[in-house]
Design goal:
Elements (H helix, E strand, L loop, with lengths): L1 H26 L35 H26 L7 H4 L5 H24 L3 H24 L2
Helix pairs in contact: 1-5, 2-4, 2-5, 4-5
Length: about 160
Amino acid sequence: MFSYRFRWVLRFGVVVFTLCAVPCFSAFAQGPSFALPGPSVESSALVSVAPVPASSEHKFWDKKNRALFAAVAALSVADFAVTRANLQSGGKEMNPMARFFGSSTSGLAANFAGETAGVIGLGYFFHKTGHHKLERIVSLVNIGASGAAVSYGFAHR
């Protein structure tokens, strides 16, 4: 029985890790490119190449953010379902912030909906202030934390 649960939790953890690691590589690829020091090449009068500005500006609701926010929402729903099931079967809420809301199903749903809205709002704040890497990292951290919470909840049913 224990080995079956352990294998199931391990497989689920690998799936969550894979879902978190795949968008992570593209999230860190937004930085400016730096030229290596070396001999300087001057442009001739015949060929004039304007330098391309290193702009990482993108729309807030691009494909990557939509995918990240969908994953945040999906794992938040899964965390809600597992937490609710564990609380109804006599379990204890481990998150001290969510313990206040855990006395009712509607309070617990409001907690997880607020968490999802907070992640999207913080991502939007970082987008507007020009911190595009942090914009995506907020979602990735929340995905990892929610995935760990769901795994822990399944393991301790």
